[in-house]
Design brief:
The complex is a heterodimer. By secondary structure, chain A is of the alpha/beta class. Chain A contains seven helices and ten strands. Classes of the chains: A alpha/beta, B mainly alpha.
C-alpha cells in the first residue's frame, strides 16, 4: 500500500535554521495492515502520518502510495487529525457528509452512504446536533464516520483517543478494530498510549528520541484480541515497549 | 428573545425617566420633555415629513453597510489567507485606517455633488477598513488543524472558503458590523448636516436652527430607532447563520 524510501523531512525554524523531524525512514505497509506509531513528543511520528496523508511532502526521498509518488491528499485515504477536526457550524450529519459534498455526489448517494454509517456508529439520534452538544467520545465517533463515509482504503489517525476517558477509549478502540476488519482497512495510528499501540497495531513502529529515526518495528501477532489485554504477556510487552521509547515518562 | 425584548423596553423606560428628570430640572427650551418630543415625533410621522427623511437616511446607511461588507469582507479574507496580498495591502490599510475619513467630506462633495453618492461613499469609506481588518484577523486565526482537515478531504480553494473560512469568520464579521453601526450612523448624521437637503441629519439640524426643539428631538428619536432596527437586523442574521454557537 505504502512504500517509504529514504524519507527525510525538514522544518524551518525561524528564517535560517532547519529542524530535521525525520531521517531516512524506510517503511513498507501492506494492504490491510494496522500500524501503531509511538514515541515521545516531537519524535516525528505525527510528521510521518502527515506524509502518509499527503498533507506534507518529504524534503528527501519518496512516499509511494499504490506504487505512485504521493503528491497530495487522496480521496481513498481517510484522515482523523488531532482534536477530531469537526466543524462546529455543521451538524453531525453535515460533518459526516462533508467528504461527499466536496466530491459533489448526488443527494441520494449521500443519504445512502451516510445513514447506515450513522446508524452503525450509534449517531442516528444525534444527526441534527452540533459538535459542541456532544461528548468527546461522540465527537470522535463523528470524526470516524466522516473519515469512513467516502469508503477509503486507508485510515490514518493522529492521537484519536487521547482526550477520552478509559472506558470510552476502549469502546472506540474496539469500534475502530471492527471497522478495520469489516472494511479491510489499512490503518496507521499515532498514539502516546502504549496499551493502545499494542492493542491496535499489528506492527508497532517505535521512535526513540529526537533523531527522527525509527528505533524498532515490533511484530505484534496478538493485536486486536480483547483477552490479550488482561494477560501477563501483554504487560510484559508494554514494559518492553516503554523501555524502547525512553522509559517511564509515558502513560501506560 | 422575550428576555431581550423585555430588556430593551426596560432600557427605553430608564432613558425616558432620566430625560424627563433632566428636562424638569433644567427647564430650558432646548431640552423639551419626552412627551413633547414624542408628540412632535408622531405629528411629523403622520404628516409624512419625518418618514421621508427617515427613509432617505435608511437607504443611505444600509447601502453603505452593504457596500462596505461587499468590499471589506473579500479584501479581509484575501489579506488573512494570502501572505502575498497581506504584504502588499497591509501597509496601505495601516496608512489609511487611522485617518478620520470625515475630513474628506468637502473633497467628496466637490467631486461627487450633493446627492446620495457622496454620503454613501463617505460612510462606506469610514466603516470599510474596520470590517476588512476584523475579517483579516479572523481569517488569520483559523486553526491549522481545521485547514489540514479540509485539505485532507481534498477540498478545492473555493470549497475551503465555502465550508471553512467564511463560516469561521462570520461571527467576527457580524461583531465588526455591530461595532461599525455606531460609526456609520455618526458619519451619516455628519454627512447629512453638510450641504444636504434631506435625511435625518438635515431634519435635526433644521430643527436646531429654527429652534423647534421638539422637532429636533423627534429627529434624534428617529435616528435612535434607525440604529435600533439595524442592530436588531444584525442580531437576526447572527441568530440564523451562527445558530450553532447558541444551542446547548
Amino acid at each position: 500500500m505504502y512504500q517509504l524510501e529514504n524519507v527525510s523531512m525538514d522544518y524551518h525554524v525561524g528564517k535560517k535554521n532547519m529542524f530535521r523531524a525525520l531521517e531516512k525512514i524506510n517503511l513498507s505497509i501492506a494492504p490491510g495492515e494496522r500500524y501503531s506509531l509511538i514515541g515521545p513528543s516531537g519524535c516525528g511520528k505525527s510528521t510521518l502520518l502527515h506524509l502518509l496523508a499527503g498533507l506534507l511532502q518529504p524534503t528527501e526521498g519518496q512516499v509511494l502510495y499504490r506504487g505512485k509518488n504521493l503528491t497530495g491528499c487522496q480521496q481513498d485515504i481517510g484522515v482523523i487529525l488531532q482534536g477530531y477536526g469537526l466543524f462546529p457550524w455543521k451538524t453531525v450529519e453535515q460533518n459526516v457528509m462533508l467528504p461527499l459534498i466536496l466530491q459533489k455526489k448526488s443527494k441520494e448517494e449521500m443519504r445512502e452512504k451516510t445513514e447506515p454509517l450513522l446508524e452503525h456508529l450509534g449517531l442516528s439520534s444525534m444527526n441534527k446536533k452540533y459538535p459542541r452538544q456532544l461528548s468527546g467520545g461522540q465527537q470522535q465517533r463523528v470524526a470516524i464516520a466522516r473519515a469512513l463515509v467516502a469508503e477509503p482504503q486507508v485510515l490514518l489517525m493522529d492521537e484519536p483517543f487521547s482526550a477520552l476517558d478509559a472506558l470510552t477509549r476502549e469502546n472506540l478502540q474496539n469500534l475502530v478494530l471492527s471497522l478495520c476488519e469489516e472494511r479491510n482497512l489499512t490503518m496507521v495510528m499515532v498514539t502516546h498510549n502504549i496499551e493502545e499501540a499494542i492493542f491496535l497495531g499489528q506492527k508497532i513502529v517505535a521512535f526513540a528520541d529526537h533523531s527522527g529515526q525509527i528505533k524498532r518495528i515490533d511484530e505484534n501477532p496478538h493485536s486486536g484480541q480483547t483477552a490479550y489485554r488482561n494477560t501477563a504477556e501483554f504487560y510484559q510487552h508494554c514494559s518492553l515497549l516503554r523501555s524502547w521509547i525512553g522509559g517511564g515518562q509515558h502513560e501506560a | 428573545m422575550k428576555r431581550k425584548l423585555g430588556g430593551t423596553i426596560l432600557g427605553v423606560i430608564i432613558v425616558i425617566c432620566f430625560w424627563q428628570l433632566g428636562s424638569m430640572l433644567l427647564n430650558k427650551s432646548f431640552l423639551p420633555t419626552p412627551g413633547a418630543a414624542g408628540k412632535a415625533f408622531v405629528e411629523q410621522l403622520i404628516s409624512g415629513n419625518l418618514t421621508e427623511h427617515f427613509l432617505v437616511s435608511t437607504y443611505r446607511v444600509v447601502s453603505s453597510i452593504f457596500l462596505a461588507v461587499l468590499l471589506g469582507v473579500p479584501l479581509g479574507l484575501l489579506m488573512g489567507r494570502s501572505p502575498k496580498a497581506a504584504a502588499l495591502l497591509d501597509p496601505i490599510v495601516y496608512l489609511l485606517y487611522p485617518l478620520p475619513k470625515v475630513v474628506f467630506l468637502p473633497i467628496i462633495v466637490v467631486l461627487m455633488g450633493l446627492g446620495d453618492g457622496p454620503k454613501i461613499f463617505l460612510i462606506t469609506l469610514a466603516i470599510f477598513f474596520q470590517i476588512a481588518v476584523v475579517t483579516r484577523d479572523a481569517a488569520k486565526a483559523i486553526p491549522k488543524a481545521s485547514l489540514q482537515s479540509m485539505q485532507s478531504l481534498n477540498a478545492s480553494r473555493l470549497q475551503m472558503y465555502q465550508h471553512l473560512i467564511i463560516p469561521y469568520c462570520l461571527p467576527e464579521i457580524l461583531t465588526s458590523l455591530r461595532i461599525t453601526l455606531g460609526t456609520a450612523i455618526a458619519i451619516l448624521f455628519f454627512a447629512e448636516t453638510f450641504a444636504s437637503f434631506d435625511g435625518l441629519g438635515y431634519f435635526i439640524l433644521e430643527g436646531m436652527e429654527t429652534r423647534n426643539y421638539p422637532e429636533m428631538y423627534a429627529g434624534i428619536l428617529a435616528l435612535a430607532i434607525l440604529g435600533l432596527l439595524l442592530y436588531a437586523i444584525v442580531d437576526l442574521i447572527e441568530n440564523y447563520f451562527c445558530r450553532w454557537q447558541e444551542k446547548e
